[in-house]
Amino acid sequence: MIFCVEDDNGIRNMMLYTLKASGFDVEGFSEGTALFEALQEKTPELIMLDIMLPGDDGITILSRLRAQTATADIPIIMATAKGTEYDKVIGLDMGADDYLAKPFGMMEMVSRVKAVLRRSKRKTSEPEKLLCTGSLELDPDQHTVTADGERIQLTFKEFEILRLFMQNPGRVYTREQLLSSVWGVDFMGETRTVDVHIGTLRDKLGRCGDYIETVRGVGYRMEKIL
User: Fold this and answer.
1) How far apart (Å, rounded) are the C-alpha atoms in residues 138 and 166?
2) Is 196 exposed, middle or buried (0-12, 13-18, 19+ CB in 10 A)?
3) CATH number of the domain encompassing residue 144
4) Does 27 lie in the same domain as 92?
5) Chain centre to alpha carbon of residue 76
6) What is the pTM of this model?
7) If DSSP codes are grouped into helix, strand and coil, which group holds residue 131?
8) Which of 34, 70, 95, 108 could join 29 in a cystine, given CB atoms 3.0 to 4.6 angstroms apart?
């Protein structure tokens, strides 16, 4: 089941028609209140969420979905107006799994939906374990990070960057590889996005931020510490 939240009736009907024709069960909603009412009855495999909506906008709805245990892990694709790079970055930082820039083609939409669902199934099939590096601990199941015994609040993307580093200590990642792994293969952002996130991540981790090393001319890696 896929939920589509789009206030434009014509666009929403076309999305529903195309997804049904592609073999998906779908339901459509014009705003957030109806979405949350439906979520009381069933949990979809994926939510397609427009940013510009009456009432609460898509970013606000995304934040609520990620904050609630029952909906925190539902894959979400955001629909943004063409050229609004800020909305894309904010949405992805807060936990969106992918985005579509309007106007988008229906076949592109179906392709993105299938790709996100494939990634989601791979994640849920892989066992998660506590990751430890020096005095830094990351619990994937609880989605928590502790540095020198202190709980650290990270954004969704900061958490995913740290998880990737801690799962692969010593491996060097280029900025392009980090964009691909954390933001998704289709994210068309600038590599400067990675530098900004690494900087804020280091600041939040305090002394443990030094574990993330800059490899000049290449990218970043997590220091191997027992």
Assistant:
1) 8
2) exposed
3) 1.10.10.10
4) yes
5) 8
6) 0.62
7) strand
8) 34
